[in-house]
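User: DUF4179 domain-containing protein. Structure?
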Amino acid sequence: MQKKSYDSITMPERLVEVANSAIKRGQTTFLLKRSFTIIISTFILLMGLFGTCYASPTVAKVFSKVPFVGSVFLQFTDEGLKTVSKEGFTNFTGMEVTKQNGTVALNEIYYDKSEISFGLALKGVNPYTNSLQYLLYNKDKLISGSFNGGIKDEPKGIYLISLKTSVPIDLPDTFDLKLIVKETKDLKRAFEFHVPLSRTRSDVKTKEYSIMKSFKSSNKKVFIRKISFTPAAVCVDFDYTRPSEDTDFSLKLFIENGEQIQLNSLTGTEQNNEHSVTSKTNSYHAVFNPATNVPDKLRLDIIDTFEEKTILSTEFEVVTSKP
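Assistant: Predicted structure:
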């Protein structure tokens, strides 16, 4: 009887509207308080993470990623590398290695009969404060010599590096390159890449000419072995004999119309000079900007860098030699 009494109770229509409105306001207030509590909790958590300089491994990996920078080669002044990048002779690897919140990205790489060049993008790795070592291997055999290139600073702590090194003549057309970028102090992190290399495309556009000619002055001798025209460069291989006390030198290369081709790098190895104490002979590999066409003649001048004068001038024919 009591339940029936309760069920038979009716409320005025206006009172029902007031009651429902109060219930809705209560629900809305509860949801707002709950949402506000979640926002505050999330904010405190984030402040805790960043205020203590801590991030989970997943978060740290995201923040250490190198953003897209396009072609590294196009950011530098080497006209040869700019040319091969624009004409599609380079390989964009998309490879990144992260170690202890530092990332090295192998952005771009190029290979032909005279050189291996690569462009790197670094984040969390400072090439100025921590000296970097670059090691190139073919089947665990070290193939890299000295490197030439440059460093460029970018916003957001990004460093771009473009480097090139000459390669031995017995290096195969295709092989798997192992590249290690290694810090020499502090954390001593090592960033290792394995890259399949092929120079098939660049070989099609490469022409080599055996010169084998000697040029002499009073106490100096230049023996030009070979000249190569690749998509990225004009390369001259030569031996230079000079007095032991001679200072540093530079080179100038001219095509037949007198136009000078810019020198990009010069690397050398000392030969066995045990039979002479008054002179020394070194073998050199000089890399110049690329030439549009193979000229009939070239002139290579040896320049005294201190007095800025020509020490020895050589002129030789190119197209009459058999490639």
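The chain has three domains: 20-54, 61-203, 206-317. Residues 20-54 form one domain.
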